[in-house]
């Protein structure tokens, strides 16, 4: 079942999203060489609960922490722990928040210390892939148009798109319909409709697209050990175009 959202429901998703973006800013402020991912989790968890909200990830299908932190070759769903950040690392931070029964979900890849130029290029390209997908999120387009734009830009730059994990509808549930693949062909898939709210969250690998799951049954890594970056926003399809619910004028994401 795909639930189209009313304007007032969209505002509730925006409220949850604002807390996610504010938590993200606080995490970014403490991302430094020597900082552990447990510390990042604690910063986000504290901020979210102080806002009277819940971290959507916590206890989701048994997930043990409030945020996901995926370093270097880790693609997605890395679990915070004692691991400390090193100079030159990249870390994707995923924060989703539930406030008053509605969820907002976002992800930012951050640079630690001095990062090599080719690594920075991967991160910038991934961010551009997300922006291209967001721009397609209008009622005259289809789901496949979004995937097509993400995939063609990533592959043009020599990178690959992860297939096993995708974007998702979001609202009263953390994961709803529609499923949003980050690859595909123009003019295919479900037509976008006013009131659809979903995430776009491309995971782009420097090497090939293949993934492996670690023993913790959460952390996905690149099969070839190459780096992977991710960015995510929650977006509503409106008559006036894409409304990026996790983006705010006073916040840098
Ligand atoms: N943005 C990620 C997703 O939608 C967050 C997952 S949280 C987890 O898959 F609990 F599932 F890890
Ligand atoms: Co998501």
Description:
- This protein has 253 residues and is an alpha+beta fold.
- The chain is built from 4 helices and 15 strands.
- The protein has helices spanning 7-30, 37-50, 117-135, 143-156; strands at 54-55, 68-71, 74-76, 90-99, 102-111, 160-161, 167-169, 176-180, 197-200, 203-205, 211-213, 220-222, 228-230, 233-238, 241-244.
- Strands 1, 2, 4 and 5 form a 4-stranded antiparallel β-sheet that branches. Strands 3-12-11 form a 3-stranded antiparallel β-sheet, with no helix packed on it.
- α1 (7-30) crosses α2 and α3 (117-135) packs antiparallel against α4 (143-156).
- It is globular.
- The model has no long low-confidence stretch (mean pLDDT 98).
- The chain binds 2-amino-4-trifluoromethylsulfanyl-butyric acid and cobalt (II) ion.
- Cobalt (II) ion (CO) is lined by residues 105, 168, 199, 201, 232.
